[in-house]
């Protein structure tokens, strides 16, 4: 019995058949880098929200409004949002590539992943950078109690 199932050496000239950007390699690298950054950002987020000051007892609308009025926290949360969504989408893309055999279904799922991620990134970023807990001209009965002094 002969074994015709031999593989070329990884660095042989015949092993590389495609030219251009190796998206799988960059996706793999992104997952590792974003995973490390996400661990740091998530633990920082949890520490500030749950441990500093009064802890979990202080989390209310005023706390969130105060945080989202500070540019540092806006960018911190935006980085967390973008890294987490793209990290999750890349993981789902990998799962789709591994388990969906039909190329048409795979393409539909990839488009759905990209579309849903784009919508969530746009909406989440808009919320982070346009949030105003006390909108000018709002009915005082409908806004938070601490906005009475501002309106």
Brief digest:
The protein is an all-alpha fold and 151 residues long. It is 62% helix and 0% strand.
Helices, strands, pairings?
Layout: H1 23-50, H2 61-68, H3 71-99, H4 103-130
Task: Characterize the structure shown.
The structure is a single chain. This protein is an all-alpha fold and 151 residues long. The chain has one domain (23-147): Fumarate reductase/succinate dehydrogenase, transmembrane subunit (3 helical TM bundles of succinate and fumarate reductases), CATH 1.20.1300. The chain is 62% helix and 0% strand. The protein contains 4 helices and no strands. The chain has helices at 23-50, 61-68, 71-99, 103-130. α1 packs across α3 (71-99) and α3 (71-99) runs antiparallel to α4 (103-130). The chain is elongated, with a radius of gyration of 23 Å. The N and C termini lie far apart (86 Å). 0% of the residues are buried. Keywords: Cell inner membrane, Cell membrane, Electron transport, Heme, Iron, Membrane, Metal-binding, Transmembrane, Transmembrane helix, Transport, Tricarboxylic acid cycle.
